[in-house]
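Whiteboard transcription, Tuesday session. T.W. wrote the structure tokens on the left side:
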């Protein structure tokens, strides 16, 4: 089905919107996942940071009391009162014992000038004994009567340490007395860092100078958080806190600075450079430090990708399902539309068909009625025709009868007159007693009555009715019968009759009376036509055949004018004067022959004159035959 322009527009829009929607959904999902993962990460990092910071504070604060405790020891005071006069060894041992018990790095005693008098590491090659620490803040704070704290790189050990110090007074009672010495406890920070190494996150401890003093990663230790200017480096070196460490830049970059939720942190170089970190910091006010935790943002990125891919996949499935659903819906709609169209077309075709059938039926009914009417008319016409024909035949018979009557009148008058004359003569001869002569006249009278009987028999014959069914009819017998009717006329007019037919009798399938009637008609016409002919000659021909038998009546009269040839079979066509002919003979004859399944034609005879030809089927073996009439039979009938 062709898609509508609107449908195409919608589809194009969908093609644009679907990827846009996908991108939006994936972006949204990744943002959500990012926020969630970040929040989780932040919480975890915060917890860890808090625990680590508290752990560090706890670790250091544990030793807070120790310098003061040792400073108050009699043995320490005693030794400090006269160091040169005493052996330091007992004190050294005491300090070492305390060191081992408290688990600190070093414990040592400074005199008023900051020189180390006794130390727990008296037995080590790099012992503090003899070293002067007057430059250290812990000495300065303690000598001025306050407990001191300090962190820094050990001058001897180059280890990072946290220092706790307390003043030692020889005389406790005078509140204004200056301190006589300083007791120092040094705690190493490496052990704390060792614990951090097990954690996932990186931990940094940054001091007030932005120097990373402690770090879970060794390479980050003693690095400047941000690159130092030369001036500030010089200043820091002067404090000797970091000994002569170069304090190189840590490489940390702050990618953004949302301190409330944490900073995004990266590394410019080093093993941590390949990922970004979430940085959270927590102040350690007791130490003037802040602890920073760096948690890798890789899980956040992973969660982001995972969520985006999941949502993308889900989106794909939904879009695919939607597409398939839509496609199926469209197909179903198209199928329904197609079926509806088909239904409408069928209904239209059916209506059209019905209309056509109705129209045809109407036409047929009309035609049928017309045909019935025509058939009825035809039947009536045929009936009228038959009636007319019968009437015509009857009329023709009457006409022939009239002719015959005229002839018969002539035929009978003569013998009647003769009979009268013979009778008068016989009567006269009887009176005179001339018996012989009387007998002779009576014999003449008998002969004449015979002739009269014959004429009357012929008349009776003519009025006979024809049979209904065709039968086998002998053609020569029919000719003989017709000739007998015209016997006297033939004799008077001196017409030569030639019978031209084979020896064997020829039979046709016809009606005896009707065929005789036709032959009488044809012969009568021929005789009439030859009335003025000097040597009249009538030829009667029979030509038998397998299919057809030809019966010809030929005369040598004037013949039929060419312009009349087409008309002579029409009823009432005649060239004869009124009283001599009705013009019905040939038309009736033609009709009779036609009814018998044959044909009647006319043309010119080869030697001039007219030739009429009757064609009829020969009689078959199944046809019943009719006895030909004999002269004797008719005469005595
Ligand atoms: P009718 O004899 O009463 O005129 P027919 O139908 O028998 O009527 O003949 C029609 C016409 O055919 C005749 O008037 C005549 O002109 C012509 N006709 C028929 N027979 C012959 C014939 N043997 N010779 C010449 N003309 C003929």
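and on the right, the sequence the group agreed on:
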């Amino acid at each position: 089905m062709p898609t509508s322009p609107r449908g195409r527009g919608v589809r194009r829009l969908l093609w644009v919107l679907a990827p846009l929607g996908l991108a939006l959904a994936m972006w949204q999902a990744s943002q959500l996942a990012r926020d969630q993962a970040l929040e989780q990460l932040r919480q975890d990092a915060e917890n860890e940071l808090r625990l680590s910071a508290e752990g560090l504070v706890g670790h250091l604060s544990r030793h807070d009391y120790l310098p003061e405790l040792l400073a108050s020891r009699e043995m320490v005071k005693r030794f400090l009162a006269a160091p040169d006069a005493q052996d330091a060894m007992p004190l050294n041992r005491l300090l070492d014992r305390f060191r081992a018990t408290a688990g600190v790095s070093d414990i040592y005693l400074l005199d008023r000038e900051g020189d180390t008098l006794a130390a727990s590491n008296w037995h080590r090659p790099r012992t503090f004994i003899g070293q002067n620490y007057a430059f250290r803040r812990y000495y300065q704070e303690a000598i001025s009567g306050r407990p001191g704290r300090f962190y820094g790189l050990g001058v001897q050990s180059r280890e990072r340490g946290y220092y706790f110090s307390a003043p030692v007074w020889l005389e406790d009672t005078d509140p204004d007395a200056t301190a006589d010495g300083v007791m120092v406890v040094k705690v190493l920070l490496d052990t704390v860092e060792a614990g951090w190494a097990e954690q996932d996150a990186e931990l940094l401890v940054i001091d007030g100078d932005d120097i990373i003093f402690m770090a879970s990663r060794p390479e980050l230790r003693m690095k400047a958080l941000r690159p130092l200017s030369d001036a500030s480096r010089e200043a820091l070196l002067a404090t000797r806190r970091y000994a002569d460490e170069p304090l190189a830049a840590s490489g940390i970059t702050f990618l953004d600075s949302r301190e409330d939720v944490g900073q995004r942190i990266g590394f410019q170089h080093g093993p941590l450079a390949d990922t970004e970190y979430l940085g959270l910091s927590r102040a350690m006010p007791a130490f003037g430090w802040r602890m920073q935790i760096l948690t890798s943002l890789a899980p956040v990125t992973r969660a982001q990708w995972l969520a985006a891919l999941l949502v993308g996949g889900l989106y794909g499935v939904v879009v695919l399902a939607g597409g398939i659903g839509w496609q199926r819906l469209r197909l179903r709609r198209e199928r329904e539309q197609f079926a509806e169209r088909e239904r409408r077309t069928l209904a239209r075709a059916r209506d059209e068909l019905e209309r056509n059938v109705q129209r045809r039926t109407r036409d047929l009914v009309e035609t049928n009625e017309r045909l019935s009417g025509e058939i009825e008319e035809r039947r009536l016409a045929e009936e009228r025709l038959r009636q007319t024909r019968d009437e015509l035949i009857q009329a023709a018979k009457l006409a022939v009868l009239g002719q015959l009557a005229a002839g018969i009148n002539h035929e009978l008058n003569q013998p009647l007159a003769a009979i009268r004359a013979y009778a008068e003569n016989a009567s006269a001869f009887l009176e005179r007693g001339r018996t012989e002569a009387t007998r002779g006249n009576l014999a003449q009278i008998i002969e004449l009555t015979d002739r009269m009987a014959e004429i009357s028999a012929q008349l009776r014959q003519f009025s006979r009715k024809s049979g209904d069914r065709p039968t086998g009819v002998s053609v020569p017998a029919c000719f003989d019968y017709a000739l007998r009717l015209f016997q006297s006329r033939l004799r008077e007019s001196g017409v030569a009759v030639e019978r031209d037919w084979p020896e064997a009798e020829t039979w046709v399938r016809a009606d005896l009376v009707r065929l005789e009637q036709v032959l009488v008609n044809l012969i009568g016409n021929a005789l009439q036509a030859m009335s003025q002919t000097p040597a009249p000659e009538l030829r009667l021909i029979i030509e038998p055949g397998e299919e057809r038998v030809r019966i010809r009546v030929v005369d040598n009269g004037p013949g039929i004018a060419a312009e009349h040839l087409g008309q002579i079979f029409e009823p009432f066509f005649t060239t004869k004067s009124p009283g001599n002919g009705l013009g019905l003979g040939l038309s009736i004859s033609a009709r009779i022959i036609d009814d018998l399944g044959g044909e009647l034609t006319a043309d010119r005879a080869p030697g001039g004159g007219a030739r009429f030809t009757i064609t009829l089927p020969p009689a078959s073996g199944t046809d019943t035959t009719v006895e030909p009439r004999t002269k004797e039979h008719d005469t005595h009938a």
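Someone added at the bottom: The CA atoms of residues 70 and 209 lie 32 Å apart.
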